[in-house]
Design a protein that fits this description.
Blueprint (H helix, E strand, L loop, with lengths): L3 E12 L38 H13 L7 E2 L2 E4 L9 E4 L6 E2 L2 E5 L11 E13 L3 E4 L4 E4 L6 E7 L6 H18 L11 E11 L9 E6 L2 H20 L7 E6 L4 E7 L9 E2 L6 E2 L2 H10 L4 H11 L4 H7 L3 H13 L4 H20 L13 H12 L5 H14 L3 H8 L9 H12 L2 H8 L7 H10 L6 H13 L2
Parallel strand pairs: 12-13
Antiparallel strand pairs: 1-10, 1-11, 2-16, 3-4, 3-15, 5-7, 6-7, 7-10, 8-9, 11-12, 13-14
Helix pairs in contact: 2-3, 5-6, 6-8, 7-8, 7-9, 9-10, 12-14, 12-15, 14-15
């Protein structure tokens, strides 16, 4: 029995981050009362004419610049004709033959063997990305369906990949990479729960070694990462079983039923001629100036994976930290702002951002993370906390308590320490020597082990000294004082 491999191409639909819709000044948004974000243009009433949204075009061009697409000298608009309740005009304004972005490539990272290790990186090639207007949303009930046109007309970028993907895991990694880069650049929020990022997956399987592609099934409107992974995994297994039994796979559109955990047939696959495309008579082709493209390029942040590689090489940060900070653009900007204030200990700063800050955000929200705009702990104050630790004015043990108050109230570390009555013991304090001598006197066996060359044995004294000081002693000062006392015999 032959071994089969999957061949997958994705069509990723991303709502662009703009104040208004693609061809009218009606507001774009989410969560408003049904059918409140509409006007005569959205509804396609007689006598209305579309007007281009320049901001949406610029957001689409930014996408192309992020992923090294070619931005053509000219792109134009077509009508895609079909009759469906979610399309109020009974046609969709889109781009068929002259899209805004041609080609390009997306770097993805597959999951590593453990959370401490980076996964395999590879490049997925894009065919093109074209601009269009989104459609409305249908909500189905037992005996009827309702349509909400709030989403209709929202600027939508459809990203079409080459058939470079070979597993559900690679498809998920592609979506995650697109989301990371577009949110970092402010092109889209890519919130799948709000419908801002959706996916159609074209899946086929073939015997390993076969060059030609077999018929494919297209799964429509996968609206969650879990849905994408499960639907593709199921479809790969389904098609392989069909071939193993000697059958043939129909080229068709299928629906993912999350409750049943399977795909079901919807209709035969449409071809381009089914939509009767033709150039839109109301919209002229667009010539976008090259100088503006260069200006947009200058506005883009550093590529996410390039940023990660730079943090690892320049600051010596481990993957466990960079994979948290760099993959979240808000955390990366927070870390950068803290580094401007204090750049002597990047690893300590990164640890506090990736661990303590994230822990406090999680505990404050309960479900998910407290939005960064609501975080009171400023980058400047976090940098100040790390500086106090490095200067020996605050122990790491006490800093864990201090940062909780800093997060809740937004005060600098010094103010929290004063309110808590924390007065760190200085390195030359006679009290520190007294605590250390008491600890050494209480464990003669460990003291002799240190003298015999067992450096780790000194840790036996650290705990008692820290307990005696109620956590105020500087650990490095404690270690140095213990070494001095033990060496004296």
């Amino acid at each position: 029995m032959p071994e089969y491999e999957a061949v997958i191409g994705l069509e990723v639909h991303v709502q662009l981050k703009t104040a208004s819709k693609m061809f009218t000044d009606a507001p774009a948004g989410f969560g408003q009362p049904p059918n409140s974000l509409t006007n005569a243009v959205v509804m396609g009433l007689p006598g209305t004419l579309p007007v281009l949204n320049q901001g949406a075009i610029e957001q689409a061009i930014k996408f192309g610049l992020i992923f090294d697409s070619e931005i053509p000298e000219l792109f134009q608009w077509d009508r895609k004709n079909y009759f469906y309740p979610d399309s109020p005009k009974n046609y969709q304004l889109t781009q068929k033959d002259a899209p805004v972005c041609i080609g390009g490539e997306v770097e993805i990272e597959l999951a590593g063997a453990s959370r401490n290790l980076a996964g395999e990186h590879k490049v997925i090639h894009l065919d093109h990305a074209h601009l269009e207007e989104d459609v409305g949303k249908l909500t189905h009930f037992a005996t009827d369906s309702l349509v909400d046109y709030n989403r209709a007309g929202t600027p939508l970028l459809e990203i079409v990949t080459k058939p470079d993907l070979h597993s559900a895991e690679e498809a998920v990694a592609l979506l995650q990479s697109i989301r990371m880069h577009l949110t970092s650049a402010g092109v889209s929020d890519c919130d799948m729960e709000k419908g801002q990022m959706r996916c159609d997956a074209n899946v086929s399987v073939r015997p390993v070694g076969q060059e030609e592609l077999n018929p494919r099934a297209e799964m429509k409107n996968l609206n969650s990462i879990t849905g994408v992974k499960n639907a593709i995994s199921y479809e790969i297994r389904r098609q392989a079983r069909v071939y193993e039994k000697g059958g043939t796979v129909a080229q068709e559109t299928r629906r993912w039923d999350a409750d049943a955990g399977r795909t079901t047939s919807m209709r035969s696959k449409e071809e381009a001629h089914d939509y009767r495309y033709f150039p839109d008579p109301d919209l002229l082709p667009v010539h976008f100036p090259r100088h503006r493209i260069e200006e947009l390029k200058a506005e883009l942040p550093e590529n996410v994976f390039d940023l990660q590689r730079r943090y690892e090489s320049e600051y010596g940060l481990p993957y466990t930290l960079t994979s948290v900070i760099c993959y979240d653009h808000e955390l990366a900007r927070y870390f950068e702002a803290a580094m401007v204030v204090y750049d002597k200990n990047p690893k300590a700063l990164a640890n506090y951002v990736a661990n303590e800050l994230q822990r406090e955000r999680s505990q404050a929200e309960g479900d998910g993370y407290l939005p960064m705009e609501q975080v009171r702990l400023s980058p400047r104050n976090l940098a100040g906390l790390v500086r106090l630790i490095d200067e020996g004015k605050l122990t790491k043990q006490l800093a864990k308590e201090v940062i909780v108050d800093m997060f809740q109230g937004g005060d600098p570390a010094e103010a929290v320490m004063e309110a808590r009555g924390i007065k760190p013991v200085q390195q030359d304090s006679g009290q520190l020597e007294e605590w250390c001598r008491a600890a050494v006197a209480g464990n003669a066996v460990a003291a002799q082990q240190v003298r015999d060359g067992n450096d780790k044995a000194i840790n036996s004294f650290i705990g008692p000294v820290m307990k005696a000081s109620r956590g105020t002693a500087n650990p490095q000062a404690v270690r140095e004082m213990l070494q001095k006392i033990i060496s004296e015999g």
